[in-house]
Amino acid sequence: xxxxxxxxxxxxxxxxxxxxxxxxxxxxxxxxxxxxAGNASLENTSKNALNLLHTIGWExxxxxxxxxxxxxxxxxxxxxxxxxxxxxxxxxxxFYKIDVTDFIYEEAKKYDGNLEILALAPMTxxxxxxxxxxxIKPLIKSITFMGGTTRAGNITPSxxxxxxxxxxxxxxxxxxxxxxxxxxxxxxxKAYLQLEDIDYFKSFNNxxxxxxxxxxxxxxxxxxxxxxxxxxxHDAVALAVMVLPxxxxxxxxxxSIEINNKQSLGMLLLDYRxxxxxxxxxxxxxxxxxxxxxxxxxxxxx
Length: 302
Fold this sequence. Notes:
This protein has 302 residues and is an alpha/beta fold. It has a single domain, classed as Ribonucleoside hydrolase-like (Inosine-uridine Nucleoside N-ribohydrolase, Chain A, Alpha-Beta Complex). It is globular. The two termini are 25 Å apart. The strands form two sheets. It has an eight-stranded mixed sheet, sandwiched between helices. Helix 4 (124-132) packs across helix 6. Helix 4 (124-132) links the parallel strand 4 (115-119) and strand 5 (140-146). Helix content is 37%, strand content 18%.
């Protein structure tokens, strides 16, 4: 059976690589792209999604989602494009004219419990849908999300970016009872690429491979400014774990998120020792076969 999937994202360099890869994945049907402010403003993330689909020739509805988190203020810069120096073809298509919560709900009803969500961004759109349509919970088969960390964060010492931007939305999703799989920094940082991988993608004369090479180089250039040499493509790793679950070793934990303490906002609280009576609610990817991941990604685009 073809797997229906909504990709909720904030493109974004690594989101863009995930979207390009998703276009080539077999046995899935991406039914729509929903956008949210995250890596850049909502205007830019939405435009990036629409232009990227146009560039790779993918006819798919793009639905504009949430500009602001549920409760807290978004205090990050809105000036950056989100995709660095990469230039995409300008699309003349319009965004799909529907409220993002209505779209997610209608698709969930349409697929009668088989809809999956790949969440690559702050979870505002998903949480708003759960608030507005609580009866959607049994209609969503699973949510795989890129976010969180069991170690150090990448936006604060204790929090990963997607969790930090809208922790109150994450709290709602974590408590929803929907089957959840977390692909966090612990795993995505292991599956990094290098400069020679860029040359591999450059060697193929097709728009997918050429664009991946451009996005990888943009990530490389950005990370070099921070003194890093690894090309981390977090969101593409989450997609891979979703479509090929055998890539990752997982373990189930009871997980909650800090929403009150300003100093640790967005930090994940894991019940490592099974002390709590709370039900284990999230399958967490704790390791990944890096070689198989790289071979999968390269095999999609040759």
